[in-house]
Amino acid sequence: MTATTTKSAFWRGFRDGFPFILGAAPFGLLFGVLATEAGLNVAQVMSMGVLVIAGASQFTALSQMQENAPVIMVLAAALAVNMRMAMYSAALAPHLGAAPLWQRAIAAYILVDNAYAVSAVEFDRRPEQSTATKMAFYIGCAVPVWVVWYGATLTGALLGQAIPPEFALDFAVPIAFLAIVAPMLRTIAHVAAALTSMVLGLALAFLPYSSGLLIAAAVAMIVGAEIERRMGDRFK
Amino acid sequence: MSYSQAEIWIIILGLALGTYVIRFSFLGPLGRANLPAFVLRLLRYTPVAVIPGLVAPLVLWPAATGGQPDPARLLAALVATVLGMWTKNVIVAVIGGGMALYLGLYLF
Fold this sequence. Notes:
Largest sheet of chain A: none
Helix content of chain B: over 70%
Radius of gyration of chain B: 19 Å
Helix content of chain A: over 70%
Structural class of chain B: mainly alpha
Number of domains of chain A: 2
Structural class of chain A: mainly alpha
Order of helices and strands of chain A: HHHHHHHHHHHH
Order of helices and strands of chain B: HHHHH
Oligomer: heterodimer
Number of helices of chain B: 5
């Protein structure tokens, strides 16, 4: 009975997570192509894709590397993009926290935007499910994107060298970034944070080692959070 | 790009390890520790706080044109942003931005 429930939860998760391969495949492919063109070898491209599995931060690292930023600044900017995952981790902990350590270790490895977003909605709607059922659903959600990400990255890495500069792929990363961020601009607070980041990012671009970006990001986070707090107060 | 092989591997492994620590944090050692509300609020804004600041200089001063503003790339950025905000669909925004880029490169 329990095994059947877990199995069906896995497949429900898989079905809900499946459409997200449409997003993962092109980004994995693009990352593979651009990282290879930037000069990383196939082993390095694949290591990053497999060990990091976080597209936005991989693109961030890559563009920082193309500016020849110091190693520590490459890491700081790329990890800053991933800080949001601490929030995902905290949001999932009440639901998955009782699972065995090895399962939580795997769950953490595949914690990506869509697995969090889909699972959070599901757990919200049906909080009474057992930990095992919730874990099965969550893993099911993540599996399609996880597998497709590996395949797409490898395909991109192998194709990389074959695409000529006329295709202006240099600009694929800014377009991809804008496409990722634009749908997130749902509230005034998000828009204000984005504008702050943009203006300060430009104004501080003269600072060495991309340090302007970190200042811009820190200020923009505070602006977003503060506006959210004040807007919230107004409705109390 | 001018990094030694060792530096490239440090970047890859550092990013992998750091990202895993962030992901595992509350599923692992921090358990059900409650984050203060203001920390959760700050974390909610990380992507929109980092990415525009990173992209804006790339859009305005593209390396491919030697840092000169380029109408095709500006148009592509505008189309991707507007489509993304309007449709909330990442793929539509990417495709639209790409088409605007090629159209711009052809026209200008």
